[in-house]
Amino acid sequence: MPPSPPTSVPGGAHLPANDTPAGTAQMLPPLHSLVAWPPAELDGWLRRTQERLNVRAFGLPHLNLRAPFRTPLGSRDLVSVFRHLLAETPPFEVQILGWKQLPNALMLECERPPELLALHRRALGAVPSSQAPYDGDSYMPHLTLALGILPWAEAHLWEEVRHLTPPVSHFTVTALSLTREMRGEVQELHTFPLGERGIV
Length: 200
Description:
Radius of gyration: 17 Å
Oligomer: single chain
Number of strands: 8
CATH topology: Cyclic Phosphodiesterase, Chain: A
Strand order of the largest sheet: 2-1-7-8
GO molecular function: ligase activity
InterPro entries: 2H_phosphoesterase_YjcG-like, Cyclic_Pdiesterase
Number of domains: 1
Pfam family, one: 2_5_RNA_ligase2
Protein name: 2'-5' RNA ligase
CATH architecture: Alpha-Beta Complex
Keywords: Ligase
Helix content: 10-25%
Order of helices and strands: EHEHEEHEHEEE
Number of helices: 4
Strand content: 25-35%
């Protein structure tokens, strides 16, 4: 039996950030993100669920501290800026609230405690950059299960996931990573341990 067609197309995830005329993509700086990785148990569970439902997100499961952005700064300068920004940032807890459905997307929504919002705002102001419409006041920390869900599959997928319970209800973030999108792949440029001032 041939494999079933995909029910999501993750390439649609970055349409707002990449909404540029044809032929200009090579002129733009790459997209960067500041992300937290979920613990192995939750990461594996999300990947297995994606495989079972035949859906995809963009890159490995992660929580954005800010949405993908473009900046004139190079990688070395970005690492230096975020190293300074995060030098005295302590580890923090992420509380999972439950499933959330948006047009063409499914995700695990997370709580917005004051310390996480403050860190998000510091990250937004750290470098000259573009800003996505879902940053700032609209920032919603989350772990994406599926992006680019095709309209005919939305109701079916919601019924599949809305009763699923993730293996953990919260986790501690002890490090953040600066990532870069290159040719459709997400590369990890640098990892910053939290609460460990002076580590490079």
